[in-house]
Amino acid sequence: MLDNYRDLIDELLGGPSEVRAMADTAGGTLPAAALGVVAEMRKRDELVTSRLQTMMRDPDPHLPVLADHPAGEVGDTAEVLAAMDQARGDLVSLLMNLTLKDWERTATHDVDGEITLADEVERHVEFDEDRLARLRVVVSEGTG
To answer: Entry's Gene3D superfamilies (predicted)?
Structure first.
């Protein structure tokens, strides 16, 4: 079980490194569409961190469905990457300090009924993988 949780954390740790590698390949500047995807990933990290904190704090937490949060004005590449690093670092720090019992904490969900904290993290990893795939396409189109 612990290995599964470590794998989730490792997958989350890999995202910012991949984004930075894409930025480096693109000459240090990501296209505006790519910056929007990265900002969306950052916002989702912040929302998931808050949701996990709620699961840790509240005796009977309820989690609404997470809607997509497209980015508005995002700033330059350096600002967007720094904000993503901060948000992802906060999330990973929280996850690394969880006990095995914490991973099994539950919450009710608008659509899925009862979910565990591990379920919520796994969903976030899937979201992250989807956005990284989208980012690869956007960056390749912007530089190709």
So the answer is: dinb family like domain (1.20.120.450)
